[in-house]
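lol ok so funny story. i was supposed to be doing the assay writeup but got distracted and ended up predicting the structure for this chain instead. priorities right. anyway since i did it might as well share w the group, maybe its usefull for someone
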Amino acid sequence: MFFLSCTKNDITVVNNLTQADTLPSQTIRDLTTIYMDTGRVQMILKAPLVNYYSEREEPVMIFPGGIHVDFYDKNGQVETRLQAGHAIYYQKKNLWEARDSVFAMNSTGERLDAEILFWDITKKRIYSDKFVRITTPDEIIFGEGFESDQAFNDWNINNVRGTVYLQSYQEQKDTTTIKKSQKSRKE
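and the output, tada:
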């Protein structure tokens, strides 16, 4: 056993150690939250770790281990999925920020990959002003900036940087395969 003592209290050190906004007021591990409205499941959010800072000027919930969210339609089916390696919920603004390997997928199989994504709960919109990639069954679209309804069904990419048409690529691939097989038959 040993004891430490200070001969002098440095007020700035003491204040820094005791400030309420630097330490979380709550920490939650293995969170599963089910949001319901009129008896229907709207959303299920899962996170390995949540730190809640209620004493900050802008209270926030920080999800340093990321989030996985399933959004449900009126029939109880998963309509949209969202995953991110890191997330923040700004309580006063009613705004989510997702970062680090963000991806969302809607019920038609369209996939969004983004550097950062915001979800404004009040406006029921998701958006980003950074690089995004949307993969549909027919194409991959790259751009800077994105906006959509919160279900990721009615979306728009700003500043499109390029598009890859998957059907054309598949047809070209099939043609190459046919040529190779015809060549091998002739030999």
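Confidence is low (pLDDT under 50) at residues 1-5, 169-187. The two ends are 85 Å apart (CA to CA).
back to the writeup now i swear
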